[in-house]
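WARN retry 2 of 3 for item q-0093 after timeout on previous attempt; input resubmitted unchanged.
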Amino acid sequence: MKTAIISSESSEKHITGDGHPEQPKRIISIKKRLENRKDLIWKKPEKVPEEILKMTHSKEYLEEISKSFPHNGLKFFDGDTVVSPGSKKAVFDAAGSVIKAIDGIENNEFKNAFCAVRPPGHHATKSKAMGFCVINQAGVAVNYLVRKYKYKRIACVDFDVHWGNGNYDVMYENKNALYISTHQYPFYPGGGTEKDKGKYNNSLNIPLPAGTNSRQYFNAFERVLDRLINFQPDFLLFSAGFDAHKDDPLAQFELNSKDFYEITRRTLNATNQYTKGKVISILEGGYDLNALAESVNEHVNALTEFS
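OK item q-0093 returned
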Protein backbone atom coordinates (compact mmCIF):
# COMPACT_ATOMS: atom_id res chain seq x y z
CA MET A 1 0.00 0.00 0.00
CA LYS A 2 1.04 3.56 -0.68
CA THR A 3 1.63 6.63 1.46
CA ALA A 4 -1.14 9.23 1.25
CA ILE A 5 -0.72 12.98 1.14
CA ILE A 6 -3.79 14.65 2.66
CA SER A 7 -4.11 18.22 1.46
CA SER A 8 -6.62 20.89 0.51
CA GLU A 9 -6.69 23.98 -1.69
CA SER A 10 -8.00 25.86 1.35
CA SER A 11 -4.49 25.74 2.86
CA GLU A 12 -3.41 28.14 0.11
CA LYS A 13 -6.32 30.51 0.84
CA HIS A 14 -5.35 31.06 4.46
CA ILE A 15 -3.81 34.51 3.94
CA THR A 16 -1.59 35.86 6.72
CA GLY A 17 -0.33 39.10 5.17
CA ASP A 18 2.87 40.27 3.48
CA GLY A 19 6.05 39.17 5.18
CA HIS A 20 4.40 36.63 7.49
CA PRO A 21 6.57 33.49 7.61
CA GLU A 22 3.57 31.13 7.85
CA GLN A 23 2.43 31.79 4.29
CA PRO A 24 0.62 29.96 1.45
CA LYS A 25 3.90 29.43 -0.44
CA ARG A 26 4.83 26.84 2.21
CA ILE A 27 2.15 24.45 0.95
CA ILE A 28 2.73 25.38 -2.68
CA SER A 29 6.45 24.53 -2.40
CA ILE A 30 5.66 21.16 -0.78
CA LYS A 31 3.04 20.24 -3.39
CA LYS A 32 5.40 21.19 -6.22
CA ARG A 33 8.06 18.92 -4.76
CA LEU A 34 5.77 15.93 -4.25
CA GLU A 35 3.20 16.19 -7.06
CA ASN A 36 5.01 14.09 -9.68
CA ARG A 37 5.87 11.20 -7.39
CA LYS A 38 4.23 7.95 -8.46
CA ASP A 39 4.52 6.30 -5.04
CA LEU A 40 2.01 8.66 -3.36
CA ILE A 41 -1.76 9.02 -3.46
CA TRP A 42 -3.51 12.32 -2.81
CA LYS A 43 -6.61 12.64 -0.64
CA LYS A 44 -8.83 15.44 0.69
CA PRO A 45 -9.66 16.13 4.36
CA GLU A 46 -12.92 14.97 5.94
CA LYS A 47 -15.12 16.87 8.37
CA VAL A 48 -14.07 16.80 12.02
CA PRO A 49 -16.80 15.39 14.28
CA GLU A 50 -18.03 18.09 16.67
CA GLU A 51 -17.55 15.81 19.68
CA ILE A 52 -13.85 15.41 18.82
CA LEU A 53 -13.36 19.18 18.63
CA LYS A 54 -15.06 19.50 22.03
CA MET A 55 -12.75 16.86 23.50
CA THR A 56 -9.74 18.83 22.22
CA HIS A 57 -10.70 22.46 22.92
CA SER A 58 -12.91 24.24 25.42
CA LYS A 59 -16.50 24.99 24.43
CA GLU A 60 -15.90 28.73 24.99
CA TYR A 61 -12.84 28.74 22.76
CA LEU A 62 -14.60 26.91 19.92
CA GLU A 63 -17.52 29.34 20.11
CA GLU A 64 -15.16 32.31 20.16
CA ILE A 65 -13.12 31.29 17.13
CA SER A 66 -16.13 30.20 15.07
CA LYS A 67 -17.42 33.79 15.06
CA SER A 68 -14.02 35.50 14.90
CA PHE A 69 -12.97 34.87 11.28
CA PRO A 70 -13.22 38.18 9.36
CA HIS A 71 -15.40 38.76 6.28
CA ASN A 72 -12.62 40.89 4.81
CA GLY A 73 -9.09 41.95 5.67
CA LEU A 74 -6.98 40.36 8.38
CA LYS A 75 -7.65 39.65 12.04
CA PHE A 76 -5.12 38.85 14.76
CA PHE A 77 -5.96 36.06 17.22
CA ASP A 78 -2.66 36.94 18.91
CA GLY A 79 0.48 38.83 17.86
CA ASP A 80 1.57 35.98 15.57
CA THR A 81 -1.66 34.25 14.61
CA VAL A 82 -3.36 36.01 11.71
CA VAL A 83 -6.54 34.93 9.93
CA SER A 84 -8.40 36.11 6.84
CA PRO A 85 -11.74 35.24 5.16
CA GLY A 86 -10.30 32.03 3.68
CA SER A 87 -8.84 30.90 6.99
CA LYS A 88 -11.91 29.30 8.53
CA LYS A 89 -12.11 26.53 5.91
CA ALA A 90 -8.31 26.09 6.06
CA VAL A 91 -8.37 25.73 9.86
CA PHE A 92 -11.12 23.10 9.88
CA ASP A 93 -9.70 21.31 6.81
CA ALA A 94 -6.33 21.09 8.58
CA ALA A 95 -8.05 19.41 11.52
CA GLY A 96 -10.09 17.26 9.13
CA SER A 97 -6.94 16.05 7.40
CA VAL A 98 -6.08 13.89 10.41
CA ILE A 99 -9.59 12.39 10.37
CA LYS A 100 -9.13 11.33 6.74
CA ALA A 101 -5.62 10.07 7.48
CA ILE A 102 -6.80 7.88 10.36
CA ASP A 103 -9.92 6.58 8.59
CA GLY A 104 -7.91 5.82 5.45
CA ILE A 105 -5.38 3.77 7.41
CA GLU A 106 -8.08 1.94 9.39
CA ASN A 107 -10.01 1.16 6.17
CA ASN A 108 -6.85 -0.05 4.37
CA GLU A 109 -7.01 2.67 1.70
CA PHE A 110 -3.33 3.46 2.29
CA LYS A 111 -0.59 2.45 4.72
CA ASN A 112 0.37 5.78 6.32
CA ALA A 113 -0.15 9.49 5.65
CA PHE A 114 1.38 12.95 5.68
CA CYS A 115 -1.02 15.87 6.20
CA ALA A 116 0.28 18.76 4.09
CA VAL A 117 -1.95 21.42 5.58
CA ARG A 118 -1.81 24.78 7.27
CA PRO A 119 -2.18 26.52 9.65
CA PRO A 120 -0.09 24.32 11.94
CA GLY A 121 -1.50 23.20 15.29
CA HIS A 122 1.01 22.31 17.98
CA HIS A 123 0.92 25.68 19.81
CA ALA A 124 -2.89 25.79 20.01
CA THR A 125 -3.87 25.02 23.61
CA LYS A 126 -7.29 23.92 24.83
CA SER A 127 -8.39 27.52 25.12
CA LYS A 128 -6.00 29.72 23.12
CA ALA A 129 -4.76 30.31 19.57
CA MET A 130 -1.08 31.19 19.41
CA GLY A 131 2.13 30.74 17.45
CA PHE A 132 0.35 30.60 14.04
CA CYS A 133 -1.92 27.77 15.36
CA VAL A 134 -5.71 27.70 15.85
CA ILE A 135 -6.90 24.05 16.16
CA ASN A 136 -4.59 21.42 17.65
CA GLN A 137 -4.42 18.76 14.92
CA ALA A 138 -2.36 16.26 16.94
CA GLY A 139 -4.84 16.56 19.81
CA VAL A 140 -7.75 15.98 17.42
CA ALA A 141 -5.96 12.86 16.12
CA VAL A 142 -5.35 11.46 19.61
CA ASN A 143 -8.95 12.00 20.69
CA TYR A 144 -10.33 10.49 17.48
CA LEU A 145 -8.09 7.42 17.79
CA VAL A 146 -9.23 6.87 21.38
CA ARG A 147 -12.93 7.64 20.86
CA LYS A 148 -13.61 5.95 17.52
CA TYR A 149 -10.97 3.23 17.28
CA LYS A 150 -10.31 2.51 20.99
CA TYR A 151 -6.53 2.88 20.81
CA LYS A 152 -4.82 2.68 24.19
CA ARG A 153 -1.22 3.78 23.52
CA ILE A 154 -0.71 6.65 21.09
CA ALA A 155 2.71 8.30 20.82
CA CYS A 156 3.21 11.78 19.38
CA VAL A 157 6.79 12.66 18.39
CA ASP A 158 7.18 16.41 17.85
CA PHE A 159 10.45 17.34 16.14
CA ASP A 160 9.53 20.96 15.43
CA VAL A 161 12.26 23.27 16.73
CA HIS A 162 9.73 24.99 19.01
CA TRP A 163 8.21 23.22 22.00
CA GLY A 164 4.62 22.17 21.25
CA ASN A 165 3.03 23.75 24.32
CA GLY A 166 -0.42 23.16 22.80
CA ASN A 167 0.25 19.47 22.25
CA TYR A 168 1.48 19.24 25.85
CA ASP A 169 -1.63 21.04 27.14
CA VAL A 170 -4.11 18.98 25.12
CA MET A 171 -2.44 15.64 25.99
CA TYR A 172 -1.46 16.59 29.56
CA GLU A 173 -3.99 14.36 31.34
CA ASN A 174 -4.60 11.78 28.64
CA LYS A 175 -3.44 8.39 29.93
CA ASN A 176 -3.60 6.99 26.40
CA ALA A 177 -1.09 9.50 24.97
CA LEU A 178 2.66 9.90 25.23
CA TYR A 179 3.95 13.28 24.03
CA ILE A 180 7.66 13.58 23.18
CA SER A 181 9.32 16.79 22.02
CA THR A 182 12.85 17.76 20.97
CA HIS A 183 13.22 21.54 20.76
CA GLN A 184 15.47 24.57 21.11
CA TYR A 185 15.59 25.92 24.67
CA PRO A 186 15.27 28.59 25.94
CA PHE A 187 13.11 29.72 23.06
CA TYR A 188 9.53 30.45 22.02
CA PRO A 189 7.03 29.68 23.54
CA GLY A 190 8.87 29.05 26.83
CA GLY A 191 8.56 25.88 28.89
CA GLY A 192 9.32 22.41 27.65
CA THR A 193 11.85 21.53 30.33
CA GLU A 194 12.50 18.04 31.61
CA LYS A 195 10.25 18.88 34.59
CA ASP A 196 7.22 19.06 32.24
CA LYS A 197 6.25 15.40 32.49
CA GLY A 198 2.45 15.50 32.06
CA LYS A 199 -0.06 14.43 34.70
CA TYR A 200 0.73 10.71 34.33
CA ASN A 201 4.43 10.93 33.46
CA ASN A 202 3.17 10.84 29.87
CA SER A 203 5.50 13.45 28.41
CA LEU A 204 9.21 13.53 27.64
CA ASN A 205 10.77 16.88 26.80
CA ILE A 206 14.31 17.12 25.48
CA PRO A 207 15.40 20.78 25.47
CA LEU A 208 18.52 21.44 23.39
CA PRO A 209 20.62 24.60 22.97
CA ALA A 210 20.81 26.91 19.96
CA GLY A 211 23.48 25.66 17.56
CA THR A 212 22.63 21.97 18.04
CA ASN A 213 24.08 20.07 15.07
CA SER A 214 23.16 16.70 13.55
CA ARG A 215 25.50 14.63 15.72
CA GLN A 216 24.34 16.30 18.93
CA TYR A 217 20.71 16.01 17.90
CA PHE A 218 20.89 12.29 17.15
CA ASN A 219 22.75 11.61 20.38
CA ALA A 220 19.82 13.21 22.21
CA PHE A 221 17.30 11.42 19.98
CA GLU A 222 18.35 8.07 21.44
CA ARG A 223 16.28 9.05 24.49
CA VAL A 224 13.23 9.46 22.24
CA LEU A 225 13.72 5.98 20.80
CA ASP A 226 14.27 4.40 24.22
CA ARG A 227 11.06 5.93 25.56
CA LEU A 228 9.07 4.82 22.50
CA ILE A 229 10.31 1.24 22.81
CA ASN A 230 9.41 1.26 26.48
CA PHE A 231 5.93 2.67 25.72
CA GLN A 232 5.20 0.28 22.81
CA PRO A 233 2.73 2.56 20.97
CA ASP A 234 -0.07 1.02 18.94
CA PHE A 235 -0.35 4.20 16.81
CA LEU A 236 2.28 6.85 16.02
CA LEU A 237 1.83 10.54 15.25
CA PHE A 238 4.48 12.99 14.09
CA SER A 239 4.12 16.69 14.75
CA ALA A 240 6.42 17.31 11.82
CA GLY A 241 8.06 20.72 11.96
CA PHE A 242 11.03 21.29 9.68
CA ASP A 243 12.32 24.52 11.24
CA ALA A 244 15.27 22.76 12.92
CA HIS A 245 16.89 23.03 9.47
CA LYS A 246 20.09 25.09 9.34
CA ASP A 247 18.55 27.42 6.71
CA ASP A 248 15.40 28.20 8.68
CA PRO A 249 15.05 31.91 9.50
CA LEU A 250 13.13 31.44 12.78
CA ALA A 251 15.49 29.22 14.79
CA GLN A 252 19.10 28.24 15.40
CA PHE A 253 19.47 24.46 14.97
CA GLU A 254 21.90 23.12 12.37
CA LEU A 255 20.12 20.09 10.89
CA ASN A 256 20.15 19.38 7.15
CA SER A 257 17.38 18.04 4.91
CA LYS A 258 18.61 14.43 5.01
CA ASP A 259 18.39 14.46 8.82
CA PHE A 260 14.58 14.49 8.56
CA TYR A 261 14.74 11.20 6.65
CA GLU A 262 16.89 9.82 9.45
CA ILE A 263 14.63 11.10 12.27
CA THR A 264 11.66 9.46 10.57
CA ARG A 265 13.43 6.19 9.69
CA ARG A 266 14.81 5.70 13.19
CA THR A 267 11.44 6.42 14.79
CA LEU A 268 9.61 4.02 12.49
CA ASN A 269 12.28 1.37 13.00
CA ALA A 270 11.80 1.60 16.76
CA THR A 271 8.00 1.52 16.70
CA ASN A 272 6.94 -0.51 13.66
CA GLN A 273 6.64 -3.82 15.50
CA TYR A 274 4.11 -2.23 17.87
CA THR A 275 2.20 0.09 15.49
CA LYS A 276 2.17 -2.36 12.54
CA GLY A 277 3.04 0.70 10.44
CA LYS A 278 0.06 2.84 11.53
CA VAL A 279 1.52 6.33 11.31
CA ILE A 280 0.24 9.78 10.47
CA SER A 281 2.36 12.89 10.20
CA ILE A 282 1.07 16.47 10.45
CA LEU A 283 2.91 19.49 9.07
CA GLU A 284 3.93 22.01 11.72
CA GLY A 285 6.74 24.55 11.13
CA GLY A 286 9.41 25.12 8.49
CA TYR A 287 9.82 28.57 6.96
CA ASP A 288 12.62 28.48 4.39
CA LEU A 289 10.73 27.32 1.31
CA ASN A 290 13.54 25.32 -0.32
CA ALA A 291 14.61 23.70 2.95
CA LEU A 292 10.98 22.91 3.78
CA ALA A 293 10.22 21.23 0.43
CA GLU A 294 13.48 19.23 0.54
CA SER A 295 13.00 18.17 4.16
CA VAL A 296 9.37 17.13 3.67
CA ASN A 297 10.45 15.07 0.67
CA GLU A 298 13.05 13.29 2.83
CA HIS A 299 10.46 12.70 5.57
CA VAL A 300 8.04 11.25 3.02
CA ASN A 301 10.82 9.07 1.57
CA ALA A 302 11.09 7.35 4.95
CA LEU A 303 7.30 7.00 5.25
CA THR A 304 7.10 5.33 1.82
CA GLU A 305 9.85 2.84 2.77
CA PHE A 306 7.61 1.57 5.56
CA SER A 307 4.40 1.55 3.50
